[in-house]
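Readers of this paper often ask what the protein records in our data store actually look like. Such a record has a labelled line for the sequence and another for the backbone structure tokens. Nothing more is needed to write down the fold, since each code stands for a local backbone conformation. The remainder of this section carries one protein's record, kept here as part of the documentation.
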Amino acid sequence: MFDLKTIRDDPEAFDRGLGRRGLAPRTPEILALDRAWREAQTKAEQLQAERNKLAREIGAIKAKGGDAGDVLRRVGESKDEQARLEAEAGRLKAEIDTLLAGIPNLPADDVPDGTDETGNTLIRRHGTPRALNFAAKDHVALGEGLGQMDFARAGKLSGARFVVLKGGLARLERALGQFMLDLHTREFGYTEVSPPLLVRDETAFGTGQLPKFADDLFRTTTGLWLIPTAEVPLTNLVAGELLDEAALPLRYTAWTPCFRSEAGAAGKDTRGMIRQHQFNKVELVSIAHPDHSGDEHERMTACAEEVLKRLDLPYRVMLLCTGDMGAAARKTYDIEVWLPGQSAYREISSCSNCGEYQARRMNARFRPKEGKGTRFVHTLNGSGLAVGRTLIAVLENHQQADGSIAIPAALKPYLGGLEVLTRDG
């Protein structure tokens, strides 16, 4: 959401921001509705003031024993007109709110312009892809070769874009999630949360999933939504709250299943575990002071990167262009891990600074130590990491010629000291 006063004060800047997103100007429509809304409000307030004056006239007339019938008629007409104007103001305000709710966040000044991923900028690389002396297999061939990754049975149970992991792979997935949680809580100061997986409309609206992306979500028969990411409940922990400035930043992490219909991904990544309807992810969320959210963004990205460093996985960090960012973000770093089976870097984490965009939708504020009034917090979120995609990366990068998987040193304590994952577990 956006501050109407900011749009009134500098409509050209607002439309420039939309233009960088590839969108047409919207301020003529917004400001026309805004003028009509304020005019209706002002007239309603004027009628109330006039009626207060008429009430005093009625008292004076009656005190003198006169007939106040004409003034009473005017009071009745004034009440009816005021009610009409207030209803009109309410309708116009709702129309403005609906319009603004569907507009994406404006990009930060240092975000590169572009229409798609070809406009993204390489920030840094870490690690060198391992030179294999055998033909690299992808995670599907490796998992099925181990006898521990089953898409056919998952399809029998649930349809396409699901998987059954068992034995050593199920254990490895659990180890990855536990390792990530321990790293983020013990070393990076995040508070672990076990949130609900079902949320209300207003919760999904708060982080921007509704109304625009309803088709990407799963909804229950009771009207609740399955979370597409733990960002939704974690960020909304501060919805409607007035926080102390000294408490900022708040840092939360959660390891949850995530559910996505992938309505906009027809035909993409249909093979394997890259894009599924259900997957596990460790999420990072920060509630930050507006003056420090840029530094918090860099910190969060570094926390996500550290997972890959400790798993000895080569990766690169990309700054997304205006045409490739999510709707709620004002700036996003994508971390892309090297996958030998695809001979390509693939996204494993997106770390985004949403500024006050989500905070306005949630009404999440803090009271500054100095000065009057309140300010909206800034919200940030990132994958720390997507567990399934990290499993894919471990399989492909640590594969051996015989199809077994060498276990990264960071995971061995979680697997009872296991050195190599084989068909026998």
Summary: The chain has a mean pLDDT of 94. The chain is about 40% helix and 20% strand. The domain at 117-421 is CATH 3.30.930.10 (BirA Bifunctional Protein; domain 2).
